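The aim of this short unit is practical: by the end, you should be able to scan a pair of folded records and say something sensible about each. We start with the first protein, listed as its amino acid sequence and then its structure tokens.
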Amino acid sequence: MALSRADLRMIWRFEFLGEQGIDAGGLAREWFQLVTDQIFDPDSGLWRSSVANQMCMTVNPASELSCPEDHLIYFRFLGRVMGKALFDRQLISGHMVQHLYKHILGWPVTFDDLEMVDAEFHKSMLQLLAMASSEEDVTNMCLDFTYTEETLGIKTHVDLVSDGSNKEVTNENLLEYLELICKYRLLERIKPQFNELLLGFFDVIPEPLLTIFDYQELELVLCGLPKIDLDDWKQNTNYVGSFASTKAKHRVCTWFWEIVRDDFDQEMKARLLQFVTGT
């Protein structure tokens, strides 16, 4: 962590203790994979798998419990490793949830990003909107401007606004409540950790240079092309409209899957999957 920004942008050569080898690129690639494998490992307590997608990682809000003295240092270190990987055109292990790439780029998050973090919670919030739209009384849900966190079986209540426990959610302030709870779930609860990661990342990569990327491109550059299981993708596809009854057996759907399987390379498949799912 004592390296300067100039040091981080130098060419690094790697040598593993007790192993002979010349770093012609392979050792550097292995180092980035091994280090990020360890940090993103849920057993470390710093990250955890997303509820909506087990292949994507999200910051553990309770990371301080796992590393009480230095958990923020690990996030700063990871930010530097990610920045160095991007600078050196190396890949890291561990795909983050979608909205975290938006945070790195300074893009605004949306309510739909909440679905990628917790689909059930997002669905429950949509039900509140549906109630208000049909002029049902939201106060019947007995909600206030707080959020309940549960860590190791202990529940704590977080005020979304000052004295939130005494502010009732009504049809009139529902949108304010949804905005605040979305902001808390996606950023505020992990703000200390992610701020450190950003500081480390920008130690290597100047922020203006990232304007050439969108969040999907940034994920591909950092993590590389995923190995896509087309059979699993096909089995878990939802069909609607005129395709709902016949599904994959419909002639048009058969043509579609044949084209994706036979004519699309890994990059095209990854871009298509990102387009239709957002991840």
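Turning to the second protein, read its sequence before its tokens, just as you did above.
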Amino acid sequence: MAANVNQNIAAQNEQARRIGDEDSNMVQWRGNLVPEKEAKALRHVFDNLQDHFGHQRSDPRVKFNHVSLAHPGHGQKWHGDVDFTYDIDGDHCKLNYIGMDVCVDLTPKLVHKHGQPMLKDYGRSWVYVYLPQLTIDKVKSYAKAGTGWEVSDEGFIGDPNHKLVAIEANLNHQCGEEPSFWDIQDQDASGGRGSISSSRIGSVQEVTAYSHQQRIHRGVGIFSVSMEVEGTPNYKPTPGVLGLGDEAKLCFTLVSVRAWGITERVAPIVYAPSKWH
């Protein structure tokens, strides 16, 4: 009896050791050492453009995970970062990013009579991205299923005539952390399932400065996502509880663009941040 127990304990310890070793394996991805499973998810999302949200695409095999909210010590909002779990051939891999089919607006904006931009820091710290209403509805349904939070329409600018939504996507603009802009060449037959051939043009901010690139680019935007919920310093909001903080706002930060080309079919917002023109 004791021998069997010891054998079971030894087997459990060996299994735990193997899982620990697997989690601690570090591999290279684009010059960075990352855990093996994270690298698998990064290749899946960034390199092969798999399982992103888009019009007429299969439901992505990704799950929004529970969000741990924290209060910053001031104001009326609680904040939390969203992470995701991808099902890649039965392997569950966590990642901090999701992809969506979008149009990224790098067009110049109108200035008011004093010559100053009405949309402050546009193209440097934020841009508009446009996507179908159906796509953002699916994102909201995934967020509800994974986090428990109903997602509000705050931050979404609707164009019901064309069934599009505009999102104000944040851009990191610290040196070395700017979002990258890639031009998709073609499908790379030598790179395995879903492999895509692409070339990096520069950061989104650099590309915005090129006059010939000041267009609306269609492609895949890859985003980090955070959540904001109304509350007070002494009251932590809980999903499903009526009252203050019934809904969560999703905030998107664009970290990379994989551009397929230019589109003339979307009319950009030109100066009013709350209206579609």
